[in-house]
Write a structure and sequence with these properties.
The chain is built from eight helices and ten strands. It is α/β, with parallel strands linked by helices.
Length: 284
């Protein structure tokens, strides 16, 4: 493990490839943060005891077109210091392990304890019966009711099989580490990666949680293009179009708009402006 300099009140953001990552939306969010915030390597887990290499195979790459090197599938941790932030961020780009989940979570918890991580934010994405034409629903859970209310989480009522993201969050809570999870709902009829609209929704949640600006780059345009392309494809199939209309109608009936108080809206707008800061020339 690399021995980094002492981190400033670090927060950990984790996403895992596989069952927890419909449309690659969650891991794409972590990759976006890594590139945007110029993340540096921190450590990685030894994959030997966690992965079936016949399922998740290592890859061979050429170095300088001559030397071959083997890259093993594993979970990597990086650290970054966002501009204007008063804390550091540890990013976890993981792969759901095939074996020894409790030991896997313990190794991540060891890093959490060593680096004195204050909060763990888990990102995930799931397939759902939702229309691509509506804002992406983000459900989640928090360690306490006050945090859930502050973040406006739509509490998930799911009961059933879980993935490594859910197991890791539970491990954090049991160890006394505040942990929050955000799950984006990806339309099941357009589940192929990438899903930029879902990635964008997760990044908005990260921004709200950290109360700092997350540069979005070209993601808003990519999300708009994705929605347009899906709509064009659906328009050529009457059966799919009717199905999407039914989803839209059901969502409108089941999820009425929840009106926030003027005070809450004003507070959120002030946080938004503070994150963005003044723009050159006085514009926003």
């Amino acid at each position: 493990m690399t021995e980094p300099s002492r981190l400033r009140d670090p927060v950990m953001i984790a996403a895992f490839e596989g069952w927890n990552d419909a449309g690659d939306a969650a891991t794409a969010a972590v990759e976006h943060l890594s590139l945007t915030w110029d993340a540096k390597p921190l450590t990685e887990l030894d994959p030997e005891g966690f992965y079936d290499f016949q399922v998740t195979r290592p890859t061979v790459k050429l170095v300088d077109g001559v030397t071959r090197t083997v890259e093993w599938p594993t979970t990597r941790l990086t650290v970054c210091r966002p501009t204007g932030a008063d804390r550091d961020i540890i990013l976890v780009h993981g792969i759901e392990p095939n074996f020894r989940w409790r030991a896997f979570c313990q190794e991540l918890l060891d890093v959490v304890m060593q680096q004195q991580v204050e909060t763990v934010i888990g990102l995930g994405a799931l397939l759902a019966d939702v229309p691509h034409t509506r804002p992406i629903q983000v459900t989640g859970s928090a360690a306490d009711e006050a945090t859930a209310q502050r973040l406006g989480l739509i509490t998930s009522r799911y009961e059933g099989p879980t993935g490594i993201a859910g197991v890791f969050q539970d491990s954090c809570v049991r160890a006394g580490i505040p942990a929050v999870s955000f799950w984006a709902s990806v339309p099941h009829y357009v589940s192929q990666a990438p899903s930029p609209k879902a990635t964008l929704a997760l990044l908005h949640r990260v921004e709200e949680m950290l109360d700092i600006e997350v540069p979005l780059g070209a993601l808003p345009e990519q999300a708009a293009e994705w929605e347009t392309e899906v709509s064009q494809i659906a328009a050529d199939d009457e059966e799919i179009s009717e199905y999407i209309r039914a989803l839209e109608e059901r969502e409108e009936a089941d999820e009425p708009l929840k009106m926030q108080s003027g005070e809450a809206l004003a507070a959120e707008f002030e946080r938004y402006l503070r994150r963005r800061g003044p723009r050159p020339g006085g514009g926003r």
